[in-house]
Amino acid sequence: MSLLDPNQSYTFSKYFELGIESSELAQEFGYQLQRTVLSLPSFSGELDRLGELRDRIEEILPYVPLTSELARREILISRVVTELIHYTKAELRIEYSLKVSSWLQGSLDYLLRLSPQQQLLVIEAKYEDLTKGFTQLVAELIALDQWKAAPSIEDQPIFIGAVSTGTIWQFARLHREKKQIEQGLNSFRAPEDLEALMRVLIAALIPI
């Protein structure tokens, strides 16, 4: 029995609101989901401005109540994302509109794209509920996998996505050929794990 009504349209954010189990949503689209401790590639080069970023975040945090998704995006996530551009020179799209079908459509909070490799990284910002946020991320990764309007990404065998509250980051990895999604059980905290987090994000865009 289908989870979704064939007569209805669904956006990425709707899946968050519905609270569908991420593994069940993946199965609805013909993918398998596995929960595991992800060992993601890590960039080994120099991070010349990491200390400055950590200092800025730590300085601001005591003065800004992180009581909304917008606050977390503006104060925490966007700072990490823009710093990521410094190291990768990736093209950033914010609230990027994407429509693959009536079941796979909506806006991606952050989509980073690096040419000429055409590596993609999608980041979803959430206020509190990472579990439901991960379900939304699953829908976004599947949409990117089925995105026929972007033939230049056909050679990228793996997509990396992240869902973040700003202080906590969790990752997902989509193996396109196997149609398998791995949900990382491990997480990174910011600013405590900022260096490890940044190295994983950079490696997602610059293949090692």
**Main sheet makeup:** 7 strands, mixed
Number of extended strands: 7
CATH topology (fold) name? tt1808, chain A
Q: How far is the N terminus from the C terminus?
A: 42 Å
The low-confidence parts are none
Radius of gyration: 16 Å
Structural class call reads alpha/beta
**Helix percentage:** 25-40%
Shape: globular
Indicate the CATH architecture: Alpha-Beta Complex
Q: What number of domains?
A: 1
Tally of contiguous helical segments: 6
CATH level 1 name: Alpha Beta
Strand content of the residues, in percent? 25-35%
Instruction: List the strand order in the largest sheet.
Output: 1-7-6-5-4-3-2
How much is the average pLDDT? 91
Spell the H/E element sequence.
HHEHHEEEHEEEH
Task: State the main characteristics.
single chain; 208 residues; alpha/beta; tt1808, chain A; seven-stranded mixed sheet; 7 strands; 35% helix; 28% strand; globular
Quick rundown:
With 208 residues, the protein is of the alpha/beta class. Helix content is 35%, strand content 28%. The longest helix is centred in the middle third of the chain and has 20 residues, at 69-88.
Write the topology of this structure:
Layout: H1 12-18, H2 22-28, E1 32-36, H3 50-60, H4 69-88, E2 91-101, E3 104-114, E4 119-125, H5 130-145, E5 158-164, E6 168-175, E7 180-189, H6 194-205
Parallel strand pairs: 1-7, 4-5
Antiparallel strand pairs: 2-3, 3-4, 5-6, 6-7
Helix pairs in contact: 1-5, 2-5, 3-4, 4-6
Description:
The chain is of the alpha/beta class. The protein has a single domain (24-205), classed as Alpha-Beta Complex (tt1808, chain A). Helices cover 35% and strands 28% of the residues. It has six helices and seven strands; from the N terminus they run H-H-E-H-H-E-E-E-H-E-E-E-H. The protein has helices at residues 12-18, 22-28, 50-60, 69-88, 130-145, 194-205, and strands spanning 32-36, 91-101, 104-114, 119-125, 158-164, 168-175, 180-189. A seven-stranded mixed sheet has the order 1-7-6-5-4-3-2, with helices on both faces. Strand 3 (104-114) and strand 4 (119-125) form a beta hairpin. Helix 1 packs antiparallel against helix 5 (130-145) and helix 2 runs parallel beside helix 5 (130-145). The longest helix is centred in the middle third of the chain and has 20 residues, at 69-88. The chain is globular, with a radius of gyration of 16 Å. The model has no long low-confidence stretch (mean pLDDT 91).
